[in-house]
Amino acid sequence: MTSLLLSHFTATSCIGRGIEQTAASLRAQRSGLAPCAFETVRLDTYVGEVPGVDEESLPAQLKRFDCRNNRLAQLGLRQDGFRDAVQESIGRWGRQRIGLILGTSTSGMLATEVAYRHRDPATGALPADLDYAGTHNSYSLGAFARRFLGLEGPATVISTACSSSAKAFSAAWRMIEAGWIDAAVVGGVDSLCLTTLYGFHSLQLVSPAPCKPFDVARNGISIGEAAAFALLERTPADVSCGSILLTGSGESSDAHHMSAPHPEGRGARQAMEQALAVANLTPADIDYINLHGTGTPSNDAAEGCAVAGLFGPSIRASSTKGCTGHTLGAAGALEAVICAICLTQRLVPGSANTAQVDPAIGFDYLRENRTDERFRRALSNSFGFGGSNCSLVLERCA
Amino acid sequence: MRGASSTEAARPKASPELTAYVRGIGLLGPGLADWASGAPILAGEAPYHPCPTVLPAPQALPPAERRRTGATVKLAIGVAQQAIVSAAIDPTQLAAVFASSSGDGVICHEICEALATEERQISPTRFHNSVHNAAAGYWSIATGATASSSAVCAYDASFGAGLLETLLQIAVSGAPALLCAYETPYPEPLLAKRPVPDSFGMALVLTPTLEAASLARIAVALSDAPADRLPDPQLEALRTRVPAARSLPLLRLLARREEGRARIDYLPEQYLAVEVSPCR
Hints:
The complex is a heterodimer. Chain A is built from twelve helices and 17 strands. By secondary structure, chain A is α/β, with parallel strands linked by helices. The longest helix of chain A has 15 residues, at 297-311. The longest helix of chain B is centred in the N-terminal third of the chain and has 17 residues, at 71-87.
């Protein structure tokens, strides 16, 4: 696979709208997690809610897509001139030659959850104004973003739980590699909803406090929401210094359990090994790993095992979910963009909220930020239910 | 300057064909019990008598997992298993793409119902089975396949999106892959919002090169020409009502062992043309 240029990227989460705010929060190790006051949810937990999503108004001709997830998508697409960059790319390649591959786990599910509270008492019917295709269906995100951006190329939504939007990068890469498209909009959008908040709670995986990944006393995840996007194009010969490239991707399946990771992180290791092989790198070439690091005892232990086994004790790694929360289907794209921001700014990010690193972790888990003028390559991990794993390698051009 | 100039971009550029060889086929739907008995019906050699789809128990799963699975997982694993058996291929090394418009409709309904109550108690098993990639996860658990597996959705274009993703995986990896497209109906009240009448699933084992066991070569390209309609009105109704059944024009050509072009629905106003060349 020939490396791709992230010619444009953006991220919106509870730590900021767009790159500048996100970078400032990462520099300050500021967490956006706050006690849950979302919708009618009564759970003793913290969430990473993006402020102002409800105020986002969709264009009149796209009203059928109106739901929290697509509002968040639009809010994200409006940051950092991303939509303009896509328009420029349309001028360069043509709108049919730009693919759209996005990840989500629950899409606009919230719309249906709320509609179930307003069923017709006599017939049980859902309210007439619930637009299933426009909101609830996983592809609603793809259909909305495709029209919002004016794209006419191949489009799909990947929904493999928490690896969804990392896999979107891999799928788009294949499409470009095969010559089906010249560029792709990739990314992930997942928004708070009751299914995930109460669902993770039922699995006893939600922390009552802000999540503290890889802490000795970690006790669960904090759910967040995010919209993160990148515009991928073939790397030009004269790529400028400081540009960010996608150079590796690896995908695997645990083949172990629906909601628990393989205890030694077998599938995680396989995905990381494959990503390194595609990038033609050895473990020693990676400067930093953005861990999946959800903050549950078993997830972090399994990933820690895989990372220590493959990279050895000196690898620097952290999870940024202490800042953003676990943004589920958006996590892969969000954390790929966080890696891109950190590579650009030579910032090796520390882990917010983690007070005492689990002594069982056999590598250099970063609590504090570090600056490193030689920071060049980052690996980003995303693992999901169903044992779906994806690792990406991002590189800063020298 | 970077990339092509705008004058170049104005010229329409054709996507190169994506090719693969069909080595195994699985089929399950209303009045279509499996590929062996369904192929003559699709070929027009036997009459079509629609009756409700009967889902097999997923024998490939360990008993504990088998008890937890719903209709969607049963359907997907059923057709995937059929394709693997007919291809006589080891599934453990096979990348897999699962394509469907929705996840498990019954589970989704039960979760939404529970969330509309005061208690909001939802079952942990139901929750982890509600993910779109539940079938992909159970498939890898059932077979021990540790290769990449994906779960794609493009609403009514889900079959087309899955076919493309599978062919792209094969093109880039040079290794065989499994495509499984499936859909089960929602119960009411969601059924009224998404009226998929019954379960339908299909699976293909696809290889990058011609093999002794190859059934047909397929070559896929984007097309402006509308999808083929099926001669049998009831099969045509199935095609238009169930996203996974958008595959029927392709399956019909495969069943007829005929050289030809199947046009299938993709995104709105966009179609895929699949050239089919039988190998034996």
